[in-house]
Amino acid sequence: MKPVDVTRPGVPAKDDPQVKVAMGVWDALTSDEQREVFQSLYRTVAAYGHTKDIDHLTRFAESVDRMVRLESTTDLRQRIRDQRNAVPEPADPADVEDLLRRLEG
Q: How many CB atoms lie within 10 A of CB 39?
């Protein structure tokens, strides 16, 4: 039995281009990053449940929208990952000595 896609007015369909872009962003996240997003989602839902303050949901929705736009239009996350895994080049000993002299003042 195929699941039925029930939506409310204004909610885009699963095959909407924006939804496809967002799912591409999700798929590119590591499992740790996906876990962090879900943890944030649940904490937001719990905060709303405790307070009934709609701002919790609104702020999270805006945050996710910004993340999707940033991730789908830049290579920022990949550049961060590349830097995280990069082996730093050794410092020039002359630069280190110069820095130490300036710090000693």
A: 10
pTM flag (> 0.70): no
Token pair 């798929």 in the structure block, residue: 27
Burial letters 62-101, b for 16+ CB under 10 A, else e: eebeebbeebeeeeebeeeeeeeeeeeeeeeeeeeeeeee
| Residue 72: HSE in the Cβ half-sphere, 13 Å Cα cutoff | 17
Cβ proximity of 36 and 26 under 8 Å: no
Render pLDDT for 17-44 as a digit per residue (tens, 0 to 9).
999 999 999 999 989 999 999 999 999 9
Other C-beta atoms lying within 10 Å of the C-beta of residue 56: 18
| 32 residue type, one letter | D
Q: Which residue has the tokens 């919790």?
A: 56
